[in-house]
Design goal:
The protein is mainly β. The strands form five sheets. Strands 9-10-14-12 form a four-stranded antiparallel sheet. A three-stranded antiparallel sheet has the order 3-6-7, with no helix packed on it. Strand 9 and strand 10 form a beta hairpin. It is globular and about 60 Å long. The N and C termini lie far apart (61 Å).
């Protein structure tokens, strides 16, 4: 791709100011115009607000070299070194079978579907098979449905993870995520109040929640005490965007794009 830059120069000669324009031609490789598409990418009409949204089950590179066009790199094979420090040819011949879903709707509707469908595409249902004598006998011997949640979570909250800390302990790592951006949707881009004590059913009790760092290796209070303190030109200030302290009563507030991590005791 060729990029043209114009530089305006003022030249003073013999008490006269002469304005001239120098054309500088810069060649930009295709890779310099691609950006990571982790899960979604969209084109939006600034007049009507209509969106064309692409959802993917894996990360790709994407670009829009011309107005009204979107290009997704499904696979990349280099026949020579690109000169960016790797010092080897990325001739990847592995087979990739990606899934792409497309949404075409207004801005508000597309924003909602984009967040919800992206979760379904990246977390597909696991289909399992077994040899049985009859489906009725299997249904009578095994439980067909189970949910530890007392009720369905709000549409803008995602149960990101619920896993054991160690196999020998009853402690679990719980992560809750607010999947919408700020100003992404008029209804769902708002803080959500959740009570951890009322989150699970009686068959799955959760007690003594302790808020942790995102990696769940240290309590959040310890992580905040050990965080780097940046000195600005004005004065040393505390990050005003930090979340409010967890009160310990099981009631939390998730703002847009928040991910809160807890260690809970299950029984």
């Amino acid at each position: 791709m060729m990029e043209v830059k114009l530089r305006k120069l003022l030249v003073v000669a013999d008490s006269c100011i002469v304005c001239s324009c120098v054309v500088q031609v810069v060649f930009v490789y295709a890779s310099g115009n691609y950006y990571p598409m982790v899960a979604t990418s969209y084109l939006e009409d600034i007049n009507s607000g209509d969106r064309l949204t692409l959802l993917s089950d894996r990360a790709h590179g994407c670009t829009s070299l011309f107005d009204g066009e979107i290009e997704v790199m499904m696979h990349r094979r280099c026949l020579k070194d690109d000169g960016y420090g790797l010092n080897q040819v990325l001739d990847d011949v592995s087979e990739i079978r990606a899934k792409l879903w497309m949404i075409f709707a207004g801005k508000e509707r597309s924003s909602y579907l984009q967040r919800r469908l992206a979760l379904l595409l990246q977390n597909p249902v696991a289909v399992l098979f077994a040899n049985v004598s009859s489906p009725d006998l299997w249904s009578s011997d095994y439980k067909q449905q189970f949910s530890a949640l007392r009720q369905e979570l709000p549409p803008n909250i995602h149960l990101l993870s619920l896993q054991a800390v160690t196999p020998l302990k009853s402690d679990l790592i719980l992560r809750l995520q607010h999947i919408f951006e700020v100003n992404d949707h008029p209804q769902y881009s708002k803080p959500v109040n959740i009570s951890l004590s009322d989150l699970f059913t009686a068959n799955f009790t959760a007690s003594n929640p302790v808020e942790m760092s995102l990696t769940a290796n240290v309590p959040r209070s310890v992580a905040l005490g050990e965080q780097l303190k940046w000195k600005t030109k004005e004065k040393e200030t505390k990050d005003e965007l930090m979340m409010e302290e967890f009160r310990g009563d099981g009631k939390i507030v998730l703002s847009p794009r928040d991910i809160l991590t807890f260690i809970i005791n299950s029984s």
